[in-house]
Design brief:
The chain is of the alpha/beta class. Helix content is 43%, strand content 26%. It has 13 helices and eleven strands. Strands 1, 2, 3, 6, 7, 8, 9, 10 and 11 form a nine-stranded mixed β-sheet that branches. Strands 4-5 form a two-stranded antiparallel ribbon.
């Protein structure tokens, strides 16, 4: 953290607050506290160019450092985590913290007041929420059978035109449940996602190394079917495969991991899913290749389940999709029905 640069910019804004009239000075001081707490503030659009430029420079500096001070404040307030521990975890300069506390006291406010009184959505806030959440993904028996059936068909049955196999894509429907836990380190949430239905997209465009989902299939078929046939289930996310010629290659390249295209897809489709009244919450990936047995189980984490089906060795991985569209593999446990494997 660039403590000297922070303190210089903070001091310049504090000087403006002290030199201006009482009302305007108070507004500048409040705006500075708001900026330090949330990363956003009307000061960046202030009528005085020197004030707006200083505020913009401070925000840019905070952005480069990942908004570590607002994130620490948010975790302390929202999750009842010790503030001193939160700033230590993120290596926030003690001098910057003391400056923030002094300014907050001078403005007649408490730690987190601006976060409590303002509704805002920033990536750093979403990341803190994600770090305080444990995700349990439960695959139902029927859903597991569908996953295996469509995946092995896409792998074992040639699509012709020189394609020995192709990726497959499907949408996932199910239910959600949330638990709230209080521990010594503050509040934690455990979110359970039960995947009960898998609907394959036969109109998706697939190759051996990619698959392009069909929005029309989701909008005009899958969501309509869900609303009519199983309205008690919610859209949870999607599933697709990462096929490879051999199981050894699956392990060597860890093909159950997310690709850049996987990550980009959810980021690029946030607005589309909102238009459809949906939100991606989970992503499932099945990496599969020919092999005799599962090897090197020690290399997979709790969000990955390896197993053998027919001539294929498979690795099913579960991921969570954060509110900002970023896909994460942290604090996830995947549960598969044992009688399917």
């Amino acid at each position: 953290m660039r403590a000297r640069e922070y303190l210089k910019l903070i001091q310049s804004l504090e000087d403006f607050a002290q030199s201006d009239g009482s009302e305007e000075g108070k507004r500048i001081l409040d705006g500075l506290c708001q900026l330090l707490e949330t990363g956003v503030s009307p000061l960046t659009e202030h009528s005085q160019p020197l004030v707006s430029r200083s505020a913009q420079s401070l925000r840019l500096l905070m952005e480069r450092d990942g908004f570590v001070l607002p994130a620490s404040i948010y975790e302390s307030v929202q999750y009842e985590y010790d503030f001193d521990a939160a700033v230590r975890d993120r290596s926030v300069s003690s001098r910057v913290v003391q400056k923030y506390l002094r300014l907050t006291n001078a403005a007649g406010r408490k730690i987190g007041d601006w976060q409590r009184s303002n509704h805002f959505s920033e990536d750093w806030k979403v990341e803190v929420d994600g770090s305080r959440e444990e995700t349990q993904i439960w695959i139902g028996q029927d859903a597991m059978e569908d996953i295996l059936a469509i995946s092995l068909e896409g792998y074992l049955v040639s699509a012709g035109r020189g394609k020995p196999f192709t990726e497959v894509y499907a949408t996932c429907f199910g239910s959600m449940k949330e638990e709230r836990l209080r521990q010594d380190s503050g509040l934690w949430y455990v979110r359970h996602f039960h995947v009960d239905k898998i609907l394959p997209q036969i109109r998706s465009k697939a190759t051996p190394a990619s698959v392009l989902p069909s929005r029309k299939t989701l909008e005009e078929a899958h969501l309509q079917v869900a609303a009519s046939v199983f309205p008690h289930l919610h859209y949870l996310g999607d599933f697709h495969t990462h096929p490879y010629a051999s199981a050894t290659g699956i392990v060597r390249y860890k093909l159950w991991d997310l690709t850049k295209a996987d990550r980009d897809y959810t980021l690029e489709n946030i607005s589309m899913m909102q238009e459809l009244g949906c939100r991606d919450r989970v992503m499932l990936i099945l990496a599969l290749g020919r092999g005799r047995r599962v090897r090197n189980k020690k290399y997979v984490s709790e969000n990955v389940q390896p197993f053998k089906v027919g001539p294929c060795v498979c690795y099913l991985a579960g991921y969570k999709v954060l509110d900002n569209g970023r896909v994460s593999s942290e604090r996830i446990r995947l549960h598969c029905p044992s009688r399917s494997l």
